[in-house]
């Protein structure tokens, strides 16, 4: 909580004439930028402000506008804008441009605060923005106080002041005064014409922004539907393929059984090839099914207290047989101390086994090493290898489904292992990151919370 100083507004403004709408939009965007909102959110709240301000100016004759930063119940800070009408609202059913405008902010409502009716809107401040302590809020107020609204009307105010000073100095020169008055009138007409043009452009921009965000919402729904369809397709196809592939493997095993008729050497070689290919296909089908389950949310972690030492011992025993290259050593370091965390032991084992298997496939000499250490309230699992390394521009791509690094380092596989591992880590409430460079090997780091997801 930031305490009592949060009640002091960051900025206060008055809405009385149409020109104030342009200024309120500009200042609202400046306040949003100062507290740390991203550019798109700055545009959203500024657009919502100008739309509601225009409605209040038409229905109540104006409002007093103030900006605040609050600590919300969700643990996040919020930029709040209050518009207090200068006269009563039309009726109790008043809704400030609800619908499209309400999608531009997190909250939009009409409420009574200490007997005063207020139209209130708010937007969450990003978690990575500077924490708005009382001292930082004071700096925000100072920074906003140093900036003045920049518009065509500001220029007119300056010209009016200069004209008054000139009139005081040359009051006796009536002819020149008439000329100056005519010039001022012409300037006023030009500024008003410019303002009318800016107002029309602003209204058109607002309509475009509202329409754009409505279209983005529709596209997002379409993408979610497409992703769900893809997951259902992968699951259905995987189930349908598993039965015939399993049958092929079983028939191949029968052909090579000692109780069956003997095969020629060529027949035996071809049957072995069939069995090997079928096993690879079954592995692909299983990985597709696992990935489909993860994407559709059908994998639910079963959290329990897990001792890492037996988990590491099992990994050391089951994967040692895969380290068949004479120049490659598999090293699984024993965790020190009470190595306990709350997680799903099966899913964690799948992630670490996948990363170790991946390292053994790509490492021709040196070692593949697994180590773990506790850092505060998180456990860090590092799987490092001395393989060829991965270029920085490919770090994100290797987590894409079916992608494999091209070139001489490419080995057999489906390209589904790493995407599946990252999804499992996400389900466990953690992250999976990569540090690698060509010729320097690779290190995959899994970070999990000690207390579970």
Automatic annotation (TrEMBL):
Catalytic activity: ATP + protein L-histidine = ADP + protein N-phospho-L-histidine
Enzyme class: transferase
InterPro entries: HATPase_C_sf (IPR036890), HATPase_dom (IPR003594), His_kinase_dom (IPR005467), HisK_dim/P_dom (IPR003661), HisK_dim/P_sf (IPR036097), Sensor_HK_Regulatory (IPR050736), Sig_transdc_His_kin-like_C (IPR004358)
CDD domains membership: HATPase_EvgS-ArcB-TorS-like, HisKA
Lineage top rank: taxon: Bacteria
Key word Kinase present: yes
UniProt EC number: 2.7.13.3
Short name of one Pfam family: HATPase_c
Compartments, as annotated in UniProt: Cell membrane
Keyword Phosphoprotein: yes
Gene Ontology terms for molecular function: kinase activity
Residue ranges occupied by any Histidine kinase domain in the UniProt entry: 236-452
Coiled-coil portions: 163-215
UniProt keyword annotations, A-Z: Coiled coil, Kinase, Phosphoprotein, Transferase, Two-component regulatory system
Gene3D superfamilies, sorted: 1.10.287.130, Histidine kinase-like ATPase, C-terminal domain
This protein's name: histidine kinase
Species this protein is from: Micromonospora noduli
């Amino acid at each position: 909580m930031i305490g009592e100083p949060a009640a002091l507004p960051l900025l206060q403004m008055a809405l009385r004439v149409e020109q104030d709408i342009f200024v309120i939009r500009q200042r609202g965007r400046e306040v949003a930028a100062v507290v740390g909102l991203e550019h798109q959110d700055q545009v959203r709240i500024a657009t919502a402000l100008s739309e509601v301000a225009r409605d209040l100016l038409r229905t109540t004759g104006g409002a007093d506008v103030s900006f605040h930063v609050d600590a919300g119940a969700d643990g996040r800070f919020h930029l709040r804008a209050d518009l207090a009408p200068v006269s009563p609202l039309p009726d109790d059913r008043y809704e400030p441009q609800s619908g499209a405008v309400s999608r531009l902010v997190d909250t939009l409502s009409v409420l009574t605060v200490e007997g005063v009716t207020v139209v209130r809107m708010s937007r969450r401040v990003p978690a990575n923005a500077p924490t708005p302590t009382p001292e930082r809020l004071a700096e925000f107020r100072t920074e906003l106080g140093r900036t003045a609204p920049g518009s065509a009307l500001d220029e007119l105010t300056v010209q009016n002041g200069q004209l008054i000073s000139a009139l005081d100095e040359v009051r006796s020169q009536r002819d020149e005064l008439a000329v100056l008055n005519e010039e001022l009138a012409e300037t006023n007409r030009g500024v008003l014409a410019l303002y009318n043009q800016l107002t029309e452009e602003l209204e058109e921009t607002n309509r475009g922004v509202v329409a754009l965000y409505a279209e983005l919402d529709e596209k997002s729904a379409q993408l979610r539907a497409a992703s769900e369809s893809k997951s259902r397709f992968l699951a259905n196809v995987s189930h349908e393929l598993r039965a015939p592939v399993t049958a092929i493997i079983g028939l191949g095993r029968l052909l090579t059984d000692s109780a069956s008729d003997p095969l020629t050497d060529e027949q035996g070689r071809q049957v072995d090839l069939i069995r090997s290919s079928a096993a690879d296909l079954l592995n692909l089908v299983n990985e597709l099914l696992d990935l489909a389950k993860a994407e559709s949310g059908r994998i639910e972690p079963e959290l329990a207290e897990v001792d890492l030492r037996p988990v590491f011992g099992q990994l050391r025993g089951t994967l040692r047989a895969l380290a068949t290259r004479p120049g490659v050593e598999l090293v699984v370091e024993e965790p020190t101390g009470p190595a306990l965390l709350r997680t799903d032991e099966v899913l964690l084992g799948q992630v670490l086994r996948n990363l170790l298997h991946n390292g053994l496939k790509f490492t021709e000499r040196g070692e593949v090493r697994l180590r773990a250490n506790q850092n505060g309230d998180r456990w860090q699992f590092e799987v490092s290898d001395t393989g060829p390394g991965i270029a920085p521009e490919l770090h994100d791509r290797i987590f894409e489904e079916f992608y494999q690094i091209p070139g001489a380092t490419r080995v057999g596989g489906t390209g589904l292992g790493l995407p599946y591992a990252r999804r499992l880590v996400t389900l466990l409430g953690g992250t999976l990151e990569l540090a690698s460079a060509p010729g320097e090997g690779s290190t995959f780091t899994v970070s999990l919370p000690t207390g579970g997801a």
